[in-house]
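Hi V.,

You were right to ask for the full record rather than a summary. Here it is.
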Amino acid sequence: MQQPIVLGNYSASEARHTSHTDVGSTLVKVPSDFALKTMNFVHKTILTVSGGKKGWSAGNMPVLKLTTTGRTSGQPRECMLTSPIQQGDTFVVVASRGGDDHNPAWFVNLRANSTVWIETQTEAKHERRARIATSEERDEMWPIIVAKYANYGGYQLKTEREIPLIFLEKV
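Predicted structure:
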């Protein structure tokens, strides 16, 4: 049986139930649904108001607009994501949700329907296929991502779930 992850004075399950986690000596709150939706709205607004001139980079990572199909509604769902790694013309995104114990809605949607659309600073909206990284692919890429962008390592410490990596591949 896997040992529970202990974060300071809190186990990961205790942190989950309080929506907080103790990283080092700092209690860090997992973003709420409202906060995540607000950040997405603000980000899309910056893109719109700037005529697409601003908002395509965050934390030295390229930003993309991902459109999935709602798994129950069938409606298009947009969100802004960073891509810590690109392999050729494939974007890799991280389903971290800020270290929450639940996968982001966009991930659950693309798991139900792998046909997605992305828009980037240099490419108009176009179709892609989403593919979840295998265990071997994740094991190879995760240390590279965390070495460049330590916040992802912090997100993994906040949750007991393994944070998935997703390839957004050209069709």
